Amino acid sequence: MGTAINYPRAFSNPSIPLAHSSCKLIEMSSTLLLLLAFLLVQPCIPHLSHSSNNFTDQSALIAFKSQITFGPNVTVFAGGNWSTTTNFCEWFGVSCSRRRQRVTALDLSYVGIHGTISPHIANLSFLVSLDLSNNSFNGFLPHEISRLHRLRELVLSNNLLEGTLPMDVCTHCPSLQELDISANEFSGKLSSQFNHCRELLILSLSYNKFDGSISKGFGSLEKLELLYLGGNNLTGNIPPIISNLSMSQEFYIEENYINGSIPSDLWRLQNLIILNFEQNYLTGTIPQIIFNITSLKALSLAMNSLSGNLPLDTRISCSNLETLFLDLNQISGHIPSYLSNCSNLIQVDFAGNLLSGPIPKSLGNLKYLKSLVLNVNQLTEEPVHQEHNFLTSLTSCRFLEELAISINPLNITIPKAIGNFSASLKGIYAGEGQINGRIPMEISSLKNLAFLDLSYNNLVGNIPSSFGEMEGCKDCILVKTILEEEFQKSFVNEDMVAHVGDFGIAKILVENKDATQTKTIGTIGYIAPEYGSEGRVSTKGDIYSYGIILLEMITRKKPTDEMFIGELGMRQWIASLLDKMEIVDHGLLRREDGRDVIATQTILSSILELGLRCSEELPDARLDIKDVVAKVNKIKLALLGNQNMGI
Predict the structure, then answer these.
(1) Which of 83, 404, 497, 520 has the fewest CB atoms within 10 Å around its CB?
(2) Burial (0-12, 13-18, 19+ Cβ within 10 Å), 463
(3) Burial of 269 from C-beta contacts in 10 A (0-12 / 13-18 / 19+)
(4) Beta strands 94-96; 103-107: pairing state
């Protein structure tokens, strides 16, 4: 018998042909190769996906750039920057995520860009922060911006954008923490959509053209810390629901048309640092409980129609309050001595109210006080202890820089202690204050005094010769004083001591036989050009200074402002403008019920014209003092004639 043959297991069935077995082996090998190839290619598939997404971001940025222009001095887009030749994650203003290389932030603030915001910006689907502030973007904000669902910061302030805010920006961007579109031209109503922006920390809609009332939706923003609604056309009351903003630190609604009373529930805002309601139409009294917001540092209720007494007594706890502006209201009664309980006060302004009674001596305890403004009230002084009046007490305020007490029936004398004011004092405004007696020699100790106004008082005697030592004084105005008869005939006596005439800036004459050559207290900008070039003094120079002060009053700009450089002075700037109303201080043009706007503008134009004619370059071209007085009286009559219309 022959030897038995053992076949392999794969071929154990002799009925399978050998050719078929070979094909099966080849098929299996091909499958293995395909599997291996798939495993090798698989890591590349996500990379291809990333490349596609990155191309989307790059295309969106290129489309955004195509809608803007910029001047030749803008270098951020120069060279290879913002070019497809470089990685867009390295472009100026662009930030990307590390792993996916997707655009997460775009910051092109302060670049000087003009143009519109492309709707393609919505394709930056990973964008968390968008800051295009302080440029010149115009047109509408594309509604596609609501597709940026990851957006947390949207900052578009200080541009020229207009139209309405996309209605669904809060609904579709629920993570939004900062929305700042201030200083643009946006308009429309403040939608209730803001109650969907529950994560908002900062909301600034100020200085646009929004109208209507303050939406109750704001009361839902329980995380909100900063709320800016000032400079719009908002009307209606302050909704009490605002007191729900328990985390609020700053609340601004200045320069609107808000009326009604101040909600007493605001005391619940125990994290509040700044509260600014100035320049509205608020009425009623000031809730005392506001002063018990212990965190409050600045409170401005100026330029409203608030009335009643100052609600300050032993129950207040305002130790952190630094700024208190209540000017231009109808607040009456006395200034409470308890004001000094607000021991950290730096700035106090109660001007233009109906306050009466003595100025409390306790104000001298405000050791950090820098500015005290009490102009235009009915404040007086007790007739006894004139040498120890409130002025003496205020010398304890070692940081005091500005003291304004003009247009009050003070009936005081200037104490010798005035020389004890600290070197920080820069301005004393005490015109038309029924100040009697002589000017003490000690006033010359105020070496850094830049402005002294004692005009329209009942001062007698001569101006101390020591005024010449006050080198820092720009303007020492002592006009319309009642001088002793023997000193009214001339400016100077035999001892070369200067005196005040019917109208003039104080002058100290040097020892020179030519009485027109003087050493003048003043500074460039206020004094006439001929003073600096020739040292010549005349009443025409006084007219020039008066004109400059008129221009300063209307524009609220000083002739020494940084914007006036080279040949461009304040007078040249004003004279070059066709529409003079452009430079009038905004507060003087406020729209009020019953105000005749045309009459207001006419009066302001008259004052500007008088200022320009008084400040002519050549002395002979300036008005004579008699003409000035006549025009001032005419303007005064116009003001009185329109007083009932709110002017």
Answers:
(1) 83
(2) buried
(3) buried
(4) antiparallel
- List 185's β-bridge partners, or say none: 162
Nearby residues of 488 by Cβ (< 8 Å), 6 or more positions away: 499, 501
Query: Residue 155: which H helix or E strand, with range?
Result: strand 153-155
Give residue 11's pLDDT. Answer: 32
pLDDT at residue 526, as a whole number:
72
User: Residue 356: what pLDDT?
Assistant: 96
Q: What are phi and psi of 160, to 5 degrees?
A: -125, 30
Cite the DSSP H helix spans in 354-461. 390-394
Please give the pLDDT value at position 536: 55
Q: How many CB atoms lie within 10 A of CB 203?
A: 23
pLDDT given at position 469: 66
* pLDDT of res. 542: 79
Residue-level pLDDT at 327: 93
Helix runs in 258-320, H state only: none
Closest to 418 measured CA to CA, from 409, 497, 437: 437
Low-confidence ranges of the chain (pLDDT < 50): 1-26, 32-50, 479-523, 593, 643-647
Tens of pLDDT, residue by residue over 110-125, are 999 999 999 999 999 9
Give the tens place of pLDDT for each residue, 538-594: 677 878 888 888 888 888 888 878 788 777 888 888 888 888 888 888 777 765 545
- pLDDT of 74: 79
129 Ramachandran zone, left/alpha/beta (phi>0; psi -120 to 50): beta
Pairwise CA distance, residues 363 & 233, whole Å: 38
Comparing CA positions, the residue from 582, 580, 550, 569 lying closest to residue 617 is: 569
Residue 137, classed as helix, strand or coil, is: strand
Query: Contact, 404 vs 351, CB < 8 A?
Result: yes
Question: Can you tell me which residue has the tokens 């969106």?
Answer: 60
Collapse the DSSP code of 216 into the 3-class scheme (helix H, G, I; strand E, B; otherwise coil) and give the result: helix
Residue 636, pLDDT score = 72
Q: State how far Cα 452 lies from the chain centre.
A: 27
CA distances, 558 to each of 169, 528, 550 (Å)? 44, 15, 11
User: For the chain, how big is the Rg over CA atoms in Å?
Assistant: 37
Beta bridge partners of 189: 211
Tell me the CB-side half-sphere exposure of residue 468, using CA atoms within 13 A.
14
Tell which residue, 219, 248, 341, 256, has the closest CA to residue 291: 341
Q: Is-above-0.85 flag for pTM?
A: no
3-state secondary structure of 316: coil
Helical (H) or strand (E) element with 531: helix 529-534
> Which residue(s) pair with 70 in the sheet?
113
pLDDT of 524: 59
Structure tokens at 383: 């007739």
Q: Could you tell me the two tokens for 273?
A: 């640092």
Angle in degrees, 0-180, between the axes of helices 625-641 and 539-555, rounded to the nearest 10: 30
Helix (H) or strand (E) holding 95: strand 94-96
Beta-strand pair 178-180/427-429: unpaired
Under DSSP, the state recorded for 243 is G
Please, how many CA atoms are within 13 Å of residue 632, restricted to the half-sphere of its CB?
13
